[in-house]
């Protein structure tokens, strides 16, 4: 089983009752022999551009485990779902790599924009 991060953009009208669409996404994950490790509802947010005629969407973040052979079938299930406007399924950045990036950002000096005169 591989670990993935899944972000789902749900139709904004579903904000009132999120239980049904969330259960549908979780059921699709389980149908393809996956597991939901955690989920977090980020709430309704304005989109940068219109998606399926909508200016807003409800963002939901999942950490999931799926077998590699089930990923394409799971993505097809999300594509035909009426509730899901868009989704993004990616490998997570390993924590050690994330820490290394964070440390490098702290070590790089900030350029103040002024040049030293010679």
**Name of the CATH superfamily:** Ribosomal protein S6/Translation elongation factor EF1B
Structurally, the number of domains stands at 1
Question: Given the structure, what is the number of helices?
Answer: 3
Query: Biggest sheet, strands in spatial order?
Result: 2-3-1-4
Biggest beta-sheet profile: 4 strands, antiparallel
Please give the structural blueprint.
Blueprint: E1 2-10, H1 19-31, E2 35-51, E3 54-66, H2 71-79, E4 84-90, H3 95-107
Antiparallel strand pairs: 1-3, 1-4, 2-3
Structure notes:
The chain is an alpha+beta fold. It has a single domain (2-104), classed as Alpha-Beta Plaits, CATH 3.30.70. It contains 3 helices and 4 strands; from the N terminus they run βαββαβα. It has helices spanning 19-31, 71-79, 95-107; strands at residues 2-10, 35-51, 54-66, 84-90. The mean pLDDT is 85.
List its salient traits:
118 residues, alpha+beta, Alpha-Beta Plaits, 4-stranded antiparallel β-sheet
Give the structure's gist in a few sentences.
The chain has 118 residues and is an alpha+beta fold.
């Amino acid at each position: 089983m591989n670990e993935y991060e899944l972000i789902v953009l749900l139709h904004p009208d579903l904000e009132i009752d999120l239980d049904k669409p969330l259960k549908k996404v979780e059921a699709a994950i389980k149908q393809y022999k996956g597991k939901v490790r955690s989920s977090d509802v980020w709430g309704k947010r304005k989109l940068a551009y219109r998606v399926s005629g909508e200016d807003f969407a409800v963002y939901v973040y999942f950490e999931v485990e799926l077998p590699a052979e089930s990923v394409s079938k799971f993505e097809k299930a999300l594509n035909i779902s009426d509730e899901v406007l868009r989704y993004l399924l990616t490998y997570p950045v390993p924590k050690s790599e994330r820490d290394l990036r964070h440390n490098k950002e702290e070590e790089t000096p900030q350029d103040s924009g002024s040049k030293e005169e010679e």
